[in-house]
TrEMBL record:
Matches recorded under SMART domains: CM_2 (SM00830)
Coiled-coil intervals, chain numbering: none
Organism superkingdom: Bacteria
Organism of this sequence: Herminiimonas fonticola
Keyword Isomerase among record annotations: yes
A GO molecular function held by the record: chorismate mutase activity
GO BP of this protein: chorismate metabolic process; salicylic acid biosynthetic process
EC number(s) given by UniProt: 5.4.99.5
Keyword Isomerase: yes
Name this polypeptide is given: chorismate mutase
Gene3D superfamilies to which the protein is assigned, alphabetical: Chorismate mutase (1.20.59.10)
SUPFAM superfamilies: Chorismate mutase II
UniProt entry keywords in alphabetical sequence: Isomerase
Domain Chorismate mutase: 1-91
Length: 97
């Protein structure tokens, strides 16, 4: 592989990374709306049953697209942990309004 091939592939990687970050921002926007709703209804920040269903789906999606399921599980565990932290912060803010 020459330098221009490597550079071209890295351009593709950078484009994909930008898509991933854009989609992540969209996801956090939606989960923040969920956080506000849950705080208003005094629901728990975390929903273990929903997370279990999602974990099942992540494994199915990983298998469908040929990615190691554990890699996808780890990625979403990190994202969902951040969502739950944000939901707890929204609940505290809502309680003191
Ligand atoms: C977004 C929600 O809140 C939490 C975060 C989740 C997520 O980021 O997918 C899933 C379940 C909940 O623990 C939700 O309940 O839908």
């Amino acid at each position: 592989m020459d330098d221009s091939e490597l550079a071209a592939l890295r351009v593709e990687i950078d484009k994909i990374d930008a898509h991933i970050v854009e989609l992540l921002a969209q996801r956090f926007n939606i989960t923040n709306q969920v956080g506000v709703l849950k705080a208003q209804k005094k629901l728990s920040a975390i929903d273990p049953e929903r997370e279990a269903r999602q974990a099942q789906r992540y494994t199915e999606l990983a298998n469908e697209f040929g990615v190691k399921p554990q890699v996808v599980q780890n990625l979403f565990r990190s994202i969902i942990d951040e969502v739950v932290i944000n939901h707890r912060a929204i609940a505290v803010q809502t309680a003191f309004q």
